[in-house]
């Protein structure tokens, strides 16, 4: 069944009719070029990296935002932000085949809930728009910053000044580039999701762009409420119509029920199956 829709998916991605939505699993296999250490991507991996490789208390190991909130309360928000910047902005990582394929396909719209810079590096050969999620900031009702890349550098712009014909990289949980901005702790997520639900975390041109599109969820498990709430509001314009496909091998009953409510077809395939199929397509 999956093989039968791969050509449709590949063509849809190229046209912007199918939007890749990248979760932590999309970073699987990426390693530090010097140490060989795997990039921390999943909740457990991030918690261990944040705590110098040591597990935290069971209640904090539940998910990364809870552990980040604990560190923030003890050492300040800057400690969490510094960890994320050092991890994703100051280390050299091997290239991800998933991100490489999307760049080669010239995907015009990608949502990436990871905090790495893979997509930005791969799209550095072309002009594009970058949306970074923001939380707990004053002086504005919005919870994002918008940048336009001209082929050499990013410039912050207002949404009404954006060249909406350009590819869009939407990183709701942030990135270290061009300036560090992250959604990480429980407090960040509460603020961000509240404003996301109110419509203040997505530029108006993206709200228009997402109407009628479908999504391909890659490397995203849908067992935790935080990731499910973010995803639901990012694809809000698709309410009531088929939302797309989720690659979830061995999906749990909870994941299947959630996807059914969202109009998402669960595909029992992994990223390796996707990559093999897209290369053939």
User: How many beta-strand segments?
Assistant: 11
The class by helix and strand makeup works out as alpha/beta
**What is the number of helices?**
11
What fraction strand?
15-25%
**N-to-C order of helices and strands:** HEHHHHEHEEEEEEHHEHEHEH
What average pLDDT do the residues reach?
94
How many domains? 2
Fraction of residues in H or I helices: 25-40%
Q: Looking across the biggest beta sheet, what order are the strands in?
A: 5-4-3-6-2-1-9-10-11
Q: Any idea what the shape is?
A: globular
- The radius of gyration computed from the alpha-carbon positions, rounded to a whole number of angstroms, is 18 Å
Distance between the termini: 15 Å
Which regions have little confidence, pLDDT < 50, spanning 5+ residues?
Answer: none
Major sheet, described briefly?
A: 9 strands, mixed
Pfam family, one: SIR2_2
Account of the protein in words:
- The protein has two domains: 2-34 and 92-280; 43-89, no CATH class.
- Helix content is 38%, strand content 16%.
- It has helices at 2-15, 43-50, 64-75, 77-89, 97-104, 118-122, 186-197, 204-209, 225-234, 253-262, 271-280, and strands at residues 18-22, 109-112, 128-133, 144-149, 154-156, 168-171, 174-175, 181-182, 214-218, 244-247, 264-267.
- It has a nine-stranded mixed sheet.
- Helix 2 (43-50) packs parallel to helix 3 (64-75).
- The longest helix is centred in the first third of the chain and has 14 residues, at 2-15.
- The chain is globular and about 50 Å long.
- Pfam families: SIR2_2.
């Amino acid at each position: 069944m999956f093989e039968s829709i791969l050509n449709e998916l590949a063509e849809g991605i190229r046209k912007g009719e199918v939007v890749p939505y990248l979760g932590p699993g999309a970073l699987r296999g990426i390693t530090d070029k010097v140490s060989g250490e795997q990039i921390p991507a999943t909740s457990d991996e991030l918690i261990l990296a944040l705590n110098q490789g040591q597990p935290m208390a069971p209640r904090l190991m539940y998910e990364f935002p809870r552990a980040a909130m604990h560190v923030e309360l003890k050492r300040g928000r800057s400690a969490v932000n510094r960890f994320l910047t050092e991890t994703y902005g100051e280390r050299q990582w091997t290239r991800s085949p998933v991100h490489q394929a999307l760049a080669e396909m010239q995907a015009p719209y990608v949502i990436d809930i990871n905090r790495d810079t893979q997509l930005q590096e791969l799209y550095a050969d072309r002009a594009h728009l970058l949306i970074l999620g923001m939380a707990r900031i004053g002086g504005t009702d919005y919870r994002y910053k918008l940048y336009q890349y001209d082929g050499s550098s990013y410039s912050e712009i207002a949404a009404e000044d954006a060249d909406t014909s350009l590819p869009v990289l939407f990183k709701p949980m942030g990135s270290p580039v061009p300036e560090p901005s992250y959604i990480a702790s429980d407090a960040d997520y509460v603020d961000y999701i509240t404003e996301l639900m109110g419509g203040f975390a997505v530029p108006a041109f993206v709200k228009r762009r997402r109407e009628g599109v479908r999504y391909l969820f890659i490397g995203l498990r849908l067992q935790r409420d935080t990731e499910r709430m973010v995803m639901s509001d990012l694809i809000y314009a698709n309410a009531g119509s088929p939302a797309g496909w989720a690659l979830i091998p061995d999906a749990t009953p909870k994941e299947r029920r959630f996807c059914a409510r969202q109009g998402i077809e669960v595909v029992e395939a992994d990223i390796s199956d996707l990559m093999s199929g897209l290369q053939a397509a």
